Hints:
alpha/beta
Amino acid sequence: MSAKKTGVLLVNLGSPEAPTAKSVRRFLRDFLWDRRVVNLPRPVWWVVLHFFVLPFRPRRSALAYRKIWDIKGSPLIFLTRQLTGKIASRLQAKGVITDYAMRYGEPQVGSRLAAFKAQGMEKLIVLPLYPQYSSTTTASVYDAAVSELNGWFHLPDLHFISDYHRHPRYIAAVAESIRQSWREHGKNDLLLMSFHGLPEVLTRWGDPYFYHCRETAELIAEQLGLGENEWLMVFQSRFGKAEWLKPYCLETLQGLPAQGIKKVDVVCPGFAVDCLETLEEIAMENKAVFINAGGSVYHYIPALNDSEAHADALAGIIDSRL
């Protein structure tokens, strides 16, 4: 009996098509209207979104995007595309077709799955590029995939990889990227591992994201042989007035120089590829805050991006589902 024809879909968050207020507004409208992202009552949130967020935030965000925009376009998009190409080359010998999609914006999850259907795929593996599971990200990808599959009469085998936050290959790849940075730039006083923040209430409702982040950070620190005073887990990108996961990255950076810690390395193990939140917020804005508070050295360690080690790690994770 021949093996089933298999398609692998890597899914990332998405990005505006251009660093303009119009494009960012369209992207944010799609992103922030997702019930998984903002779970306020729809009538209340509609008013807030359309009268207090969309009229003002797109212009500010567009300016931030312009700081990181590349000749190839959005870093999140082209790095995901390049990473997908490397993973595809590793899985090609197994007869697997690999592609990528974005949860918000283009290319859409539904259209990519429809293309797999047209090619006669009988087995689908969906891998959201979020190492740590969250209802706001991973579950939203699942929603998009199921929304497309609900219209199919012949359903394929579906393997949805919900997280890889403690997978040995992923942990080893991140740890080695940190070691490489230390070999090239030297090791600083403290390693900050910054993860994207979420409202704290989600943890009480059962979202395991906080615990996944903590386990990831602990495993990386263990592999690097770091003592408890040599690293710290923090959360970034807080939005709104609600309590979010702590400690906050920005407040931590502001306070470190007064504690005698004036040289830091920062890595973001929750981001598969670099994007606005790492390149502009962490590498630029937060660096300025730390230096202005009295810090002397601030080094951002890039995401794994389209590195060979990253492609090897994710191809290995996918291969285990084949």
